[in-house]
Amino acid sequence: MATTVAWSDVEVGDALPSITARLQRVNLVMYAGASGDFNPIHWNETFAKAVGLPDVIAHGMLTMATAGRVVTDWVGDPGAVLEYGVRFTRPVVVPNDDQGATVEISGVVGEKRDDGTVRVDLTAVYDGATVLGKAQAVVRLA
Question: Residue 18: inside a domain, yes or no?
Fold first, then answer.
């Protein structure tokens, strides 16, 4: 799949289409099965609270992957993502209800490089607070 975004058409400050992601407990179970991360803080409310958490929390890597969708949806080709990194700053608490946790994710072109790549700066907000710090992806454009 080729990228659908041309480097020549992109400018620093351009906003990527944002997404609203809802994480529910079922998503945590599915991610645990796929990743092998069965830490009880991600599925056992009693355990999570016993270790000082407010409730079950989403896997950090699940939150990171969900935020990365803004970039892959925009560029059209996940293979165009050359680098992607974040710092985990706050947990996403996932209540045991039909709503789950809502994470608002946005991105902006932070740098346009002469080699046909751009750096995308991502923001992921849950419950009014940023949950990923220094979330950046480097993407090769057409």
Answer: yes
